[in-house]
Design a protein that fits this description.
The chain is mostly helical. It is built from 3 helices and no strands. The longest helix is centred in the middle third of the chain and has 9 residues.
Length: about 70
């Protein structure tokens, strides 16, 4: 049986495994925490060659990230 899929784009939110600068980890996010514990999820790259920019030193932006989502 096929199940529905939900794509959540949290525009402007950045998450890192590091403690420093990880506002998502520092914030009180009970709903997000529950979803991460009970549902499959993945952090994607929104910069550099992962989204078609010339090098990994190139910073992405909202437009670049949204365009990359549709590329598959």
């Amino acid at each position: 049986m096929k199940k529905p899929v939900v794509l959540v784009v949290m525009d402007g939110v950045g998450e890192t495994p590091e403690e420093l600068g990880n506002m998502v980890k520092k914030a009180t996010t009970p709903t997000l925490n529950e979803l991460k514990e009970t549902c499959p999820w993945q952090i994607i790259k929104a910069h550099g060659t992962a989204v078609g920019l010339p090098s990994d030193d190139d910073m992405g932006n909202s437009e670049v990230g949204h365009n990359a989502l549709g590329c598959g």
